[in-house]
Amino acid sequence: MIKASAKLKLKRQLANFVWEFTFEMNESCKLCFEAGQYIAIIVDPKTRRQYSIVSSPLTSEGEFILTIDVKPNGVSTNLLMTLNIGDEISFIGPIGNFVLPKTLSTNLFFVATGTGIAPLRSMIETLIFNKSNLKHNIHLHFGTRNINDLFYTDLFDGYFKDGSIKEYVKYLSRESSPETKDGYVTQFIPGLSGEIISDSQFFVCGGTEMVKSTEDMLLEKGVLVSNIFHEKFY
Ligand SMILES: Cc1cc2nc3c(=O)[nH]c(=O)nc-3n(C[C@H](O)[C@H](O)[C@H](O)COP(=O)(O)OP(=O)(O)OC[C@H]3O[C@@H](n4cnc5c(N)ncnc54)[C@H](O)[C@@H]3O)c2cc1C
Known about the structure:
Number of domains: 2
GO molecular function, one term: oxidoreductase activity
Number of helices: 5
Organism: candidate division WWE3 bacterium CG_4_9_14_0_2_um_filter_35_11
Strand order of the largest sheet: 4-3-6-1-2-5
Pfam families: FAD_binding_6, NAD_binding_1
Low-confidence stretches: none
Protein name: FAD-binding FR-type domain-containing protein
Domain FAD-binding FR-type: 1-101
Order of helices and strands: EEEEEHEEHEHEEHEHE
Bound molecules: flavin-adenine dinucleotide
Number of strands: 12
């Protein structure tokens, strides 16, 4: 773990309240992280806020990307929204144990709501870019409230179309659309067969309520606790 600073290189809006921030490390400094880990931004001497790194370590030479839900409108999201290109942040990192385990099952289920997709995108792209890992079936279940909250759709549609990921299902909990399922991201769980479950791992990220209900449903279905990995954002 290092304490370092990085300059804002790019800032773009992805969805209603979601912004993507690309930061560039100082030339002398590199962030050696594992897919799924996060940094803690030092907002002021007494305040730190954690953000998962969305980019893959395999593509992040000297820079890293964060995907941030600015809706909380708190001390950190306000600071981030007022940053201009070239402005610096201080942070510590990388931190966290929410990473891909050394031994991977055949079926890898990634389940996220909102910006919970961030560490999962890093993991999924690391698996895709590291071609030796392509023997795994990657399933992505991604939920938001409304259609305007969805993001990275073209990216994951592309991975689905070129066969890099086996399944990509989008869920909306508050409205309907032809390309999405109505309801919660957990609705694929009851249909999982015992055979699939016996060779699967599950990576879950989002708010506490969503992570807890996903975990409860997986455990009820007979998934071993050791095959469930999670990160809670709030
Ligand atoms: C390990 C870890 C990784 C994280 N990674 C990310 C990330 O990649 N992207 C990201 O957007 N956030 C992430 N978070 C959440 C982030 O650290 C902050 O909590 C969030 O940005 C709010 O900070 P704030 O200072 O602006 O608001 P605060 O004043 O701290 O919070 C205001 C209120 O909003 C709630 N809240 C926080 N986040 C959300 C949310 N997404 N939706 C609804 N309510 C929320 C808090 O519980 C609090 O009640 C992560 C949290 C953890 C613990």
